[in-house]
Amino acid sequence: MPSFASIERARLVEALRAAGPDAPTLCEGWTTRDLAAHLVARERRADSGPGLVLGPFSGWTERVRRRYAAKDWDELVRLVETGPPLLSAFSLPGADAAANTSEHFVHCEDVRRAAPGWQPRELAPGLQDALWTMLTRRGQVMFRKSRVGVTVTTADGRHATLVDARPAVTLTGEPAELLLYAFGRAAHARVTIDGPEDAVRIFEGTPLGV
């Protein structure tokens, strides 16, 4: 059975091809071409990785990404589709599932939800559960800048406290929507926020993501 990472890679490739190279995305300042180039550089150029999280290296990372962005669009999307080369760290057993399930899901939605009239899509069976696990494991990092407590909950009764503090807010939605919110896509995630008015106001100004 295909992994969730490979299923979401296929959906992402479909979204990129449907949108074309110049469509907007939810990644501020990036078109679909820019996003595709980021995905390829991330998997094929390990030397560009540090710049994704460390400011002093970001200039090099951007230069590598722009070189890929200059490629023919069809070739660039094929590189996304074929995935990492054999010598890439992403080809190690388990690496694709661990590193790319959320990456491909979120970036697929970055393409889809930047277009008017989008609707949540039906996900592969079990993917919501996998995204919930990722959210609860990584949530403390993603919400680390929150100055109020944060609990996430779903309609089917799952809940987890990601920031243990008072006052607190509760975010409610499907796991996929909550994960998108955590990755900083709040304006395009179907999530409701409940809690004291002051806590909600403080929380809504919190920068989110890795």
Task: Summarize the SSE layout with pairings.
Layout: H1 4-19, H2 32-44, H3 58-69, H4 73-82, H5 95-112, H6 127-142, E1 149-153, E2 159-163, E3 168-172, H7 175-182, E4 192-194, H8 197-204
Parallel strand pairs: 1-3
Antiparallel strand pairs: 1-2, 3-4
Helix pairs in contact: 1-4, 1-5, 2-3, 2-4, 6-7
Question: Can you characterise this structure?
Answer:
This protein is α+β, with helices and mostly antiparallel strands. The chain folds into two domains: 4-112, no CATH class; 127-204, 2-Layer Sandwich (Nonspecific Lipid-transfer Protein, Chain A), CATH 3.30.1050.20. The protein is built from eight helices and four strands; from the N terminus they run ααααααβββαβα. Strands 2-1-3-4 form a four-stranded mixed sheet. The model has no long low-confidence stretch (mean pLDDT 93).
Portion of residues in beta strands equals: 5-15%
**How large is the radius of gyration?**
18 Å
Strand order of the largest sheet: 2-1-3-4
The helix-strand sequence is HHHHHHEEEHEH
Give me the oligomer status. single chain
Q: What class do helices, strands and sheet pairing give? A: alpha+beta
**Can you tell me the residue ranges where pLDDT is under 50 for at least 5 consecutive residues?**
none
- Annotation, overall tally of beta strands: 4
Give the number of helices.
8
Helix coverage percent of residues?
40-55%
Overall geometry comes to: globular
Average predicted local confidence, pLDDT: 93
| Terminus-to-terminus distance | 30 Å
